[in-house]
Amino acid sequence: MSVRSQSTEPSESPKAAHRAGFACFVGRPNAGKSTLTNALVGQKVAITANQPQTTRHTVRGIVHREDAQLILVDTPGLHKPRTLLGERLNDVVRTTWAEVDVIGFCLPANEKIGPGDRFIAKELAGIRKTPKVAVVTKTDLVDSKALAEQLIAIDQLGKELGFEWAEIVPVSAVGDKQVKLLADLLVPLLPEGPALYPEGDLTDEPEQVMIAELIREAALEGVRDELPHSIAVVVEEMLPREDRPADKPLLDIHANLFIERPSQKGIIIGPKGKRLKEVGIKSRKQIEALLGTPVFLDLHVKVAKDWQRDPKQLRRLGF
Ligand SMILES: Nc1nc2c(ncn2[C@@H]2O[C@H](COP(=O)(O)OP(=O)(O)OP(=O)(O)O)[C@@H](O)[C@H]2O)c(=O)[nH]1
Ligand SMILES: [Mg+2]
Question: 207-316: which CATH topology?
Answer without folding.
Answer: GMP Synthetase; Chain A, domain 3 (3.30.300)
